Amino acid sequence: MRGILLILMICGLTSAASGADTRDPNLYFFNPNAGDLKAELADAKSAGKKALFLMFEQEGCPGCLHMKEHVLNRPEVQAFYRDHFVNLSIDIFGSVPIVDLSGRGLTEKSYAQSVRIKGTPTLLFYDLAGNEILRILGPAKDAQEFLLLGEFVASGAYKNRKFADFRQSRLKNGS
Asked: Could you tell me the pTM of the whole model?
């Protein structure tokens, strides 16, 4: 009986410790969205950020849930992305009004349609001039891959390499 109690206590401590390693991505990953992407881009420039990051999502999306439960909730991911990017969530079926990068008033849904979002999650980066620089359809495998994706954009490597090549060179170098 003592052995079973000890195992249960250890399991409880382990799960409590692993829970301490994560934080709510809605509070710690995504920036508050004022609904004006053009203004968000200007804020990113003035704050010295590298890009604007948008995650297009929808309720019930398994890949979106994976991102929130296994990637975006990691403190190291939150810190890196908050340091380098303005991070916003866009609901592809949302009726919330937003202003797009060209200053047009739309809903989240019509904006997602205007930038041809085909599925969720779609991870989209815009440079500080408002040009799309990288689009990934589907979730990142894990926090390390998502951090590597962020490094790819923040370092400017996207200007002369494909992400697959960047990732492969990092795997070879052990970084």
From this structure: 0.86
